[in-house]
Amino acid sequence: IKDKFINKDYELSSKKIQKYIEKQRQNIYNKAKRKKKEIEMDIKKGQIVDGTVTGIKPYGAFIEIEDGPVGLAFIEDLSVVRIKSPKERVKVGQKVKCMIKSIDEETGRVNLSYKDCLGTWEENIEKFKEGMKVKGIVRDTEKRKNGVFIELTPNLVGMTEYTEDLKYGETVDVCIKKIIPEKKKVKLVIV
Fold it and tell me: Cα 25 from chain centroid?
């Protein structure tokens, strides 16, 4: 079949080329429209879905929704605390629960939130009491060096006084000095 096209001259008019391009454009549009319809039928904003992490980039994690499309959880939607890499929260192949944060009407892109399925502040704080000694992970320092954020659980963070020798990602022992539910704050002391 290939031989009949080799070394042959073809006359292509601009109208034929234009028709071909228009047909390809229409095919792409129809395919995107079908995909969008599939997404709309299966998932809705705010819905909790099961998925599997399929890829990790510096800006977030790609998660394939069970019986659905692949969505993206941006790094800020993986954790309430500032993390430097999505790899600090998830890994490829990991099964996760996510909330559908948004669906782009035109492209069909799905944005997900992993942190919204890790429990509320109130649910996470129930595990802790004032005076309790626990381990935490150093996550971030305030710009004016007023304090250091310590992650107690993946969706709960407390603050301790600024100390130069604390390093990001380091596990430290802390004591829960004060829990302030109305402000959703936890004050910590390094022990």
Answer: 32
Q: What six digits make up the tokens of 43?
A: 């998932």
Return the closest-CA partner of residue 82 out of 150, 147, 135. 150
pTM: 0.71
**Which residue from 88, 43, 53, 47 is spatially nearest to 73, judged by alpha carbons?**
53
Q: What is the pLDDT of residues 115-137, one digit of tens each?
A: 999 999 999 999 999 999 999 99
pLDDT greater at residue 1 or residue 34: 34
User: In the block, which residue shows the tokens 């998925």?
Assistant: 51
Q: Cβ(187)–Cβ(130) under 8 Å?
A: no
Residue 78: exposed, middle, or buried by beta-carbon count in 10 A (0-12, 13-18, 19+)? buried
pLDDT at position 166, please? 87
Q: Which residue has the tokens 């802390």?
A: 174
Interatomic CA distance for residues 189 and 174, integer angstroms: 5
Give the span between the Cα atoms of 82 and 174, in whole angstroms: 19
